[in-house]
Amino acid sequence: MKHKYKRLLLSILLDLIGLIPLIDIIWAPISGYIMTQLYKGTKGKVAGVISFIEEIIPFSDFIPTFTIMWFYTNFVDNKNIKEQSSKSLDA
């Protein structure tokens, strides 16, 4: 299985962990940190803050922050798409 699809499965798993009731105060900083490790640079830091806020606010746990970030990184972020295209042309 390709690396990016493993990251998608991990993202879905992390979003499911965020749905567990009553762990928000513990999970919020952990999810923010994990997000910064999965996605480097400015976009990872911004996503980490968003993930933290989403987890700490009551009743917002249903937002799949990790999965949204995976889709953004793989389908929206033009720089990433261009890099993948050039890699496939070089191969």
Helix-strand layout with pairing:
Layout: H1 3-17, H2 24-38, H3 41-56, H4 65-76, H5 78-90
Helix pairs in contact: 1-4, 2-3
Précis, in short:
The chain has 91 residues and is mainly alpha-helical. The chain has helices at 3-17, 24-38, 41-56, 65-76, 78-90.
Key descriptive features of the protein:
single chain, about 90 residues, mainly alpha
How does this model look, in words?
With 91 residues, this protein is mainly α. Helix content is 78%, strand content 0%. It is built from 5 helices and no strands. The protein has helices at residues 3-17, 24-38, 41-56, 65-76, 78-90. The longest helix has 16 residues, at 41-56.
- State mean pLDDT (0 to 100 scale): 87
- Cα end-to-end separation: 18 Å
What is the overall number of helices? 5
Total DSSP E strands: 0
Evaluate the radius of gyration: 14 Å
Judged by helices, strands and strand pairing, the structural class is mainly alpha
Shape estimate: globular
**Which range best describes the helical content: under 10%, 10-25%, 25-40%, 40-55%, 55-70% or over 70%?**
over 70%
Q: Strand count, sense and closure of the main sheet? A: none
Order of helices and strands: HHHHH
Q: Which residues sit in consecutive blocks of at least 5 with pLDDT less than 50?
A: none
User: Per DSSP, what share of the residues sits in E-state strands of 2 or more residues?
Assistant: under 5%
